[in-house]
Amino acid sequence: MLVDSSASMRRILRAKILANINDADVNEANDVNEAMKNLAQDDYHVVLFSRESSTDEWLNFIKAKKENPTGNYPTSFILFTSSTQQEYIDKIKAYGVKDHQLIPCSGRALAATLDRVFNPYDLRSNKRYNLPDTMAILEQGQERMQAEVINISMGGLLCEMNFAPQYNLAAPVMITINFPAMEGEELSAGGAYSVMIRLNVVEANSDYSPKRVRVAYRFAMVPEETKKVFEKVFALVEAQEKQFGS
């Protein structure tokens, strides 16, 4: 959760986070009261809040949250500030603030701070696999699009493809994944009913219209036979990784 009274600041930080951790679920709060309400209703792995939000009320809340944790997992707190005063940094850490991030900052610097506090990649519910030359066929009515698979898991996939105006990216698709030959066997998994959860334009035309897009899909329904193919492919990949000590 991002906490700051400036909507533009929240927008900038959200963009920096998603540019480096593109599957992060980012929520926002305008002030400490809204943040406390959100924390009372939902679990958050991390809260980033601005120096302007760090009133005694806010810091006391962090201290109480640390001493009496609630929810399914602990919440970490990160302060973003333009202040380099060590006395101030020591003060906020004494209240239980895990780390701080000086602003302005690059997206990589912010992602590195998040990684120090909690590893976001370890929180993924499904391990992701990258298999070079894996292709996906996306079917939507009479339209068929071919996409390059960047990574895939039991829960969904990230792919990249040329943009086609007739293809409705927001509508659900039926996906078939064609894996490269593994141990002399080419495997295909079809019938994965999928919905788009994220879209990025990676290359634009001279008129700024999309030329190539990167799309993340979540598998809403997957046939049992398709799941078995995924399990077989992922087991083969993990066996190969162990051979190389990965």
CA-based gyration radius = 22 Å
Indicate the structural class.
alpha/beta
Uncertain segments are none
CATH superfamily of the largest domain: Response regulator
Report the sheet-strand fraction.
Answer: 25-35%
Level-1 CATH class name of the largest domain: Alpha Beta
CATH architecture of the largest domain, by name, is 3-Layer(aba) Sandwich
CATH topology descriptor of the largest domain: Rossmann fold
Characterize the largest beta sheet: strand count, sense, and whether it forms a barrel. Answer: 6 strands, antiparallel, barrel
> Termini separation (Å)?
33 Å
Count of helical stretches = 6
Strand order of the largest sheet: 6-7-8-11-10-9
- What's the count of strands? 11
Mean pLDDT: 85
One letter per element, helices H and strands E, the order comes to EHEHEHEHEHEEEEEEH
Please render the helix and strand layout as text.
Elements: E1 2-3, H1 7-20, E2 28-29, H2 32-41, E3 46-50, H3 56-67, E4 76-81, H4 86-94, E5 99-102, H5 107-117, E6 135-140, E7 143-152, E8 156-162, E9 173-178, E10 188-204, E11 210-221, H6 224-243
Parallel strand pairs: 1-2, 1-3, 3-4, 4-5
Antiparallel strand pairs: 6-7, 6-9, 7-8, 8-11, 9-10, 10-11
Helix pairs in contact: 1-5
Give short descriptive properties of this protein.
single chain; 246 residues; alpha/beta; Rossmann fold; Thrombin, subunit H; 2 domains; six-stranded antiparallel beta barrel; 6 helices
